[in-house]
Amino acid sequence: MASTSISVLFLLLLATFAASASAATFTVKNNCSSTVWPAAIPHPATLAEFSIGGTEDYYDISVIDGYNLPMAFSCSTGSSPVCTSPTCTEAYRFPNDDSKTPGCSGNSNYQLTFCP
Hints:
Layout: H1 2-20, E1 25-30, E2 47-51, E3 56-62, E4 71-75, E5 82-83, E6 103-105, E7 109-114
């Protein structure tokens, strides 16, 4: 009888945690006139960088290694940097340029747009 009660309690706890779980969603959109392969990195390259997990996520657009196409990166609970040239003022331009790394609530929704 005790093992049945523990099993039922375990299933109820599991159902409670599963119902409250959430995850970040990434939407990638290509407005460029040609195909963009996000996983293939030519150099120089405009990069979308992110660190997710916990109560706060961080993301940025980086042109440290160069620039190859315009990009916008937004978070549902944060700012929306847009970079349309190699001299983009909203991009992470050198190591430790932390003022260009916005944060947003954990498990937010993200939109990455090539050629906004």
